[in-house]
Amino acid sequence: MVDTLYRLNLIDSPLQDAMGRALQLSGKHELYFHFPARPAFLAWESSQGIIERYGPQMVPLKGHGYERLDLRIYPVDPLNRSFWPFPNRAITVNEAKRPLGPGEQPSPFNENHRHIYQNELSKQVQALGSPAISELVTLPLQKNGKSAKFGLDLKSHLARINGKNQPGSYLVGVRRLDDSANRAWIWVQVTDLSLTAIEESDTVHFVVTSINTGKSGHTPAT
């Protein structure tokens, strides 16, 4: 077991080498050792994704050594380019820094020739006000258990913001309950729609499918 002190004793035994000489031991022969605990960690498995509107509403995490985390959620406009698209990894914001004061807050991002950069996205997140959800959440992990991948259930939290089974876009941030000052943010969209584009020689078909029912409809575009 981890963090348990073990003692190993060497006991005399009538052993002889190839020349018939006996093994001679003198004094106490013992040593102490232990297996240190692995460092605790907690991280997102993805930086953005889609959550089913009528199905499970979980986001993927992996971790070890933490039994709870600090959860915050902001609802955001899905067309607000100040918070989208997210990069391939979660956005980290240092909450130990002084909050942005009047005149220091970033302007909304509206440049058409590029996407928002990661450092600009971090400033936009840092400038947000009070979150819709801010609370401690219990995790399905044991303090000294094995590392595991698991889903963090957001269904009840999202229902408190927009109502049960309602679509929406959200920023979800988690912070470890230790001396870390960093919170990691991801972007998720709650929807029942899945879009597929099928290209042909002279047209493109956009097929919209319901995740819940599997029914679809399509619109050709030239």
What does the secondary structure layout of this molecule look like, with pairings?
Layout: E1 6-9, E2 30-33, E3 41-44, E4 48-52, E5 58-64, E6 68-76, E7 91-94, H1 118-126, E8 133-138, E9 148-153, H2 155-162, E10 168-176, E11 182-191, E12 193-199, E13 204-210, E14 216-221
Parallel strand pairs: 4-11
Antiparallel strand pairs: 1-2, 3-5, 5-9, 6-8, 6-10, 7-11, 10-11, 12-13, 13-14
Short description:
The chain has 222 residues and is mainly β.
User: Mean pLDDT, rounded to whole units?
Assistant: 88
Spell out the helices and strands N to C.
EEEEEEEHEEHEEEEE
| E-strand count | 14
**Contiguous runs where pLDDT drops below 50 for at least 5 residues:** none
- Here the CATH topology of the largest domain equals Immunoglobulin-like
Number of domains: 2
| CATH structural architecture of the largest domain | Sandwich
Question: What is the alpha-carbon Rg in Å?
Answer: 27 Å
Q: How would you classify the helix and strand content by structural class? A: mainly beta
Instruction: Report the span from N to C terminus.
Output: 66 Å
In helices, the fraction of residues equals under 10%
**Total of helices:** 2
Q: Main β-sheet, in a few words?
A: 6 strands, mixed
